[in-house]
């Protein structure tokens, strides 16, 4: 029996016998930590997105940390990041020894607003951590231009946006160090996992070393050399390694990505058509240059609807449909609230108040989606 019987879940990873078989094969190969499968997974992703290098990690959080570290971001520096995002972004900045500085978002796209961001860049701001929130590509060119003019670093957090495109080119293929997540909530999953992609040879090389304890030579290289070469440590590192078991699962998931993207796109289009024209219900706004991954489907429910987003989530739960209310901003979290007391982020505040997520995932049946749509239409009228 499935874990989800009796209700429509918000999301569900799409894993099956193929992934189980790949994990089994990796286990029985005798090489289970970072090794040949990780190298194969990295090469496949670099090729797919059009980046020169891909460096696998145990999470997107740690890949983001590496992206900052290899660009020289550290103590005393501030990193501009949208307040509308998950704690992982702030955590990665703090891991690098730097400080998060929050920016506001465009409530239509949930992404950092370039005009607002420019105003917030100060003398300590050394990087922008751009986020492609819930699979919606941010305005990458505007931020590339801004970062260049200000002489600061740029990282694109595409954790949820693997497979999304900006101006026709996959995220990760725009010459900006970019990060993907393979957590089960994201587009493809390895249980846990992340990836840093970059075109810069030195950044990739340093990321590989720091990812694996700071060792100059990988375990695989030593193994191949039959113990005749020794590693050296030029700087301390971390254990951010992905395992070959995970990478083997990831390789299978990669093959399923086109079908997963297709199903999500189709589900999003069905929701768009079903909800267009309901007063106060705003279907996702997609700028002309964006092809989202549709890792989430997020509606805005404004005052004309007479029912709040929070109330809609409650009503949908009564109908056995799992939804979620809002993207809460980081600046009000207890660990930041004192410092950011009184700061206003009108875009982020609107997003937190007005948004709700609906189920979207590969494998959702037409019957399930019909139930979601009918439940929503009833709940918004009642
Ligand atoms: C999920 C997520 C992360 C963190 O990913 P992990 O792999 O869990 O570390 C970072 N940024 C964004 C925008 C995310 O959605």
What do you see in this structure?
It contains 13 helices and 16 strands. The model has no long low-confidence stretch (mean pLDDT 96). 40% of the residues lie in helices and 15% in strands. The longest helix has 32 residues. It is α/β, with parallel strands linked by helices. It starts with 16 loop residues before the first helix and ends with a helix. The relative contact order is 0.17.
List keywords for this structure.
binds pyridoxal-5'-phosphate; 13 helices; 40% helix; single chain; alpha/beta; seven-stranded mixed β-sheet; 382 residues
Secondary-structure blueprint of this entry?
Elements: H1 17-29, H2 36-49, E1 53-57, H3 60-70, E2 78-82, H4 87-95, E3 99-103, E4 105-106, E5 111-112, H5 114-120, E6 125-131, H6 140-150, E7 153-157, E8 165-166, E9 169-170, E10 178-181, E11 194-198, H7 201-211, H8 219-224, H9 244-275, E12 281-282, E13 290-291, E14 297-301, H10 309-318, E15 324-325, H11 334-337, H12 346-354, E16 355-358, H13 366-381
Parallel strand pairs: 2-3, 2-6, 6-7, 7-10
Antiparallel strand pairs: 1-11, 4-5, 8-9, 8-13, 10-11, 12-14, 14-16, 15-16
Helix pairs in contact: 1-9, 2-9, 3-4, 3-7
The chain binds pyridoxal-5'-phosphate (PLP).
